[in-house]
Specification:
Chains A, B: InterPro entries: Tscrpt_reg_Rrf2 (IPR000944), WH-like_DNA-bd_sf (IPR036388), WH_DNA-bd_sf (IPR036390). Chains A, B: Pfam families: Rrf2. The structure is a homodimer of 137-residue chains. Chain A is 57% helix and 6% strand. Chain A is mainly α and 137 residues long. Chains A and B meet through helix 1, helix 2 and helix 5 of A and helix 1, helix 2 and helix 5 of B. Chain A binds a DNA duplex (30 and 30 nucleotides) through helix 3.
Chain lengths: 137, 137
DNA sequence: TCATTCTGTAATTATTAATATTACAGTTTT
DNA sequence: AAAACTGTAATATTAATAATTACAGAATGA
């Protein structure tokens, strides 16, 4: 996974939670995060496919939450961002198959990755977007 | 953090656990992982500073475990590799300070990163190198 | 003692991944 | 019909990783 994207998604969602249903443009959001608007729209595509936000095209359009912030868990956000990988990503190494350890390491390390990923999901499942965004003054 | 490095460290330690105290050269280790020997030596430096391995210079030198594999937890390995960051790394963004959310996001997201990191540490703390390496045939 | 085989580390280059930018068709509003 | 958006693709730029080269210093052993 790419660390920065989780943070970007949480930032977007926090802004939307604060916007109280009013559509926000990718340009406004990008200005708060200080990244490119196209990246914001790409990230919003992920969040939309995961059912957390909705978009409205055209003038005065933008993005808004698809459900109440209390019903959006940070674990969902994490899951949407990391897609089908785990915290540690996917092993992209191609170890030596002639070595017993090299031959089996990917299989066994995936088990570890899964354990770590499950632990993250459980911990982030305890925090809702509402709780997170309410921390802000 | 960099995902691949955790896997590299676990691979190195698994090889050493199997080597039964006999020093292994960085070249042999690198051949199993299929990466450059210099990268292996760099990673070993991290593991050595964390007290998990020892090195012997000179001819017939190499690297070996500094303690029993039962006493090396995967959480230690993870901690050594990720250094002073968390799973999600360090926020390197510089959000807009003129925005209330932008101004506070780094501070609040760090709290989330910490929670996720603690969860990983706890889950990996339950697995020793001995248990992990015994999975291999 | 001296060639050999290692480590440790720095410096440089090459490769890959992440991010930014440009562009534009399509949608909605006024 | 102009304006202000989204969605998405294509390309360029920048940053992060990894490989390579290089070499001093340590231990071994013929």
């Amino acid at each position: 996974m790419n660390n920065a994207r989780f943070q970007i998604s949480v930032h977007i969602l926090t802004l939307l939670a604060k916007a109280d249903g009013k559509p926000m443009s990718s340009e406004i959001i990008a200005a708060s995060i200080n990244i490119n608007p196209v990246l914001v729209r790409k990230e919003i595509t992920i969040l939309r496919k995961a059912g957390m936000v909705q978009s409205k095209e055209g003038k005065n359009g933008g993005c808004f939450l698809a459900k109440n912030a209390q019903n959006i868990l940070l674990s969902e956000v994490y899951k949407a961002v990391r897609q089908d990988a785990t915290v540690f990503g996917k092993s992209k190494n191609t170890p030596n198959p002639a070595c017993p350890v090299g031959r089996q390491i990917n299989q066994h390390i995936e088990g570890i990755f899964q354990i770590a990923d499950d632990a993250i999901l459980e911990s982030l499942g305890k925090i809702s977007l509402a709780e997170f965004s309410n921390q802000f003054e």
